[in-house]
Amino acid sequence: MSYPNYGQASYNSMPQPGNPRATEAWALTEAARRMSLAQKPEVSDEELLVAVRLNWRLWTIFQAELASPECPLPLEMRQDMLSLCNFIDKRTVEIISDVDRAKIDALININRQIAAGLFATPSQAEEASADQTAAPASTNDVV
Fold first, then answer.
1. pLDDT digit string (tens) for 52-62?
2. Which of 9, 62, 83, 107 registers the highest number of CB atoms within 10 A of its CB?
3. pLDDT digits (tens, 9 = 90+) for 104-122
4. 53 near 96, Cβ under 8 Å?
């Protein structure tokens, strides 16, 4: 039985040019999808590693952009993202050196979370952030 090449590009759902946020979100989602499919037990370790290495290349591109002096992101956000890139690097090396399918879950989840933030419009992201930081009302506060 033959399995699809999880590192091979599928361009039929690729976003239109001119929207970098959508392109980055698509790339992260696609890498997460490929790792998730490759994580299945019937898929060979080599195919799994192809998907993991593809994700690593994507994050290396992000890392290079974030480290560039021309990066328009605020310094604190750049530092946070570079820390995340560092985690991706370390986890990927762990997976490549000793294939552990369970360790891939963290990479998949990170990709999906970052992609969700990129897919959200700026106003949606601000509303979600405000909702998460607002303190829940307590029934004990009623006088």
1. 999 999 999 99
2. 107
3. 999 999 999 999 998 886 6
4. yes
d(CA 105, CA 141): 40
Q: Which of 39, 4, 10, 43 is nearest to 27 (CA)?
A: 10
We report the CATH number of the domain holding residue 27 as: 1.20.120
In the chain, the percentage of residues whose pLDDT exceeds 90 is 66
Q: Does any domain span residue 111?
A: yes
Residue 136 has pLDDT above 50, yes or no: no
Could you tell me which residues come within 8 angstroms of residue 111 by beta carbon, excluding any fewer than 6 positions away? 28, 29, 31, 32, 35, 55
Total domains, the chain:
1
**Residue span of the structural domain in which 90 resides:** 20-120
Q: Are 77 and 35 in contact (CB under 8 A)?
A: no
